[in-house]
Amino acid sequence: MERLFSVLKGHLYMDRLTKRGIDKAFTDIMICLITFLAGTIVQLKDKALPNVA
Asked: Is 18 helix (H, G, I), strand (E, B) or coil?
């Protein structure tokens, strides 16, 4: 969990939320998590492609 928080804060700028309110903050955090998961999926697919060919 600590590594995830470090990545979210360091690379996805979650430590600098610019919006106020729980709903807006929740939206920003969800966008950060979706971005992180999308990047992870792309990295996993890139590693798996050379094994298929």
From this structure: coil
Asked if 35 and 29 count as a contact pair (C-beta separation under 8 A), the reply is: no
CA atoms 19, 24, 25, 28: torsion sign? negative
Long-range Cβ contact pairs of 26-31 (< 8 A, separation 24 or more):
none
pTM strictly above 0.70: no
The 10s digit of each residue's pLDDT in 3-50 is 877 877 777 677 777 778 888 888 888 888 898 889 889 988 887 766
First to last CA, the chain: 34
Q: How far is CA 32 from the centre of its chain?
A: 4
Residue 34 to residue 41: CA distance in whole angstroms = 10
